[in-house]
Fold each of these.
Amino acid sequence: MSTRSKLFEIADRQQGFFTTRQAQECGISRSHFHRKLLSGEWIKELRGIYRLAHYPATDRPELVLWTLWSRDKKDHPQGVWSHDTALDIHDLSDNMPSKMHMTVPLRFRKQIAIPKAIKLYFASLSKSDIEICQGYRVTTPLRTLLDVIAEGKISPDLIAQAIREGLRKGILLLRDVNQTPQLLKYKHEYKI
């Protein structure tokens, strides 16, 4: 397989994005990066993050871009979209977050400033709390609801709406609602 094909395979899983390390692991020398940028084949998005210029537009490219931004020194993304942003990704409520909400491991550190558009939460998430999407991860609807309830910043009406919508779409199970005291309260109060 050619270096170009290898890179496309990686970028395709990440909505057209890739990192410096990923390109180098495909066999592309760092000295060729400038030529790829000048030719218009690649676009530099952030430090160490590129996008294939002719990759088709996607709905939410920022989700992948900031996920790649969250990578550790071994180039593994650490961030999981959560809280208000996860509500939006799952299309569970009319809440319009002003920032993008991401949960990162407790030991997460970046040597550059956290972008103003992102609000970070530090927590240990289990694999059962995470869904994998194309190029990013997001908390499950159940974990998302528990997070926003615990944070206490979203109105109870929007939480009730999110529970209703999750049940209607089948991405939240009635069994889970009935077994989770935080959600059961809303079920009774809002007659869900």
Amino acid sequence: MSENISVRRIVTIVEETLIEGGRVLETPTRRAAAVAIIANPFAGAYQEDLSPLMATGKALGRILPERAVAALGIPGDKVESFGKAALVGEDGELEHAAALLHPELGAPFRDVLGGGAALIPSSKKRGAPGAAFDIPLGHKDAARVRSHFDGMEVRVADAPRAGEIAVAVAVTDSGRPLPRVGGLTKERVVGVDGMV
């Protein structure tokens, strides 16, 4: 972990859908999120150099996916969708979330999964403790796989406090349950350009 950045809690959540639309699923769909609650060293004061948060993003880019994948109980290369998000406490800026999520978090995340050609969907917002936030999800190798356009809502009851940030990643072992809106299917993914 980066110097002067502390993690207060890590929460791991697994969702398993067994019935959708009144139908029992032949194979349940599963998704997992890992959320780290970290101190925001720049809460309440403008800071030009956000590199300490970028370094923290790099560290979390390994720690959080490892926990989420372990919670699913599958090898990293069997993950089908991924996403990342951050919820900034009231004394922080959205740019603090961007510093955590964008410059450095992606490469170690992909390493844990053994690849991932597609852009990692992301979101960021500001909120109070217990606020819900969504981690957008998309197929890890091909952004146009419609069955994997999804999201996972997460919340941590006591976070983020005003001077904290909740940083989250999510992974899945499948797309949405009972997908039927057409488009590129996962069986036809090429996975070279991140689109198809």
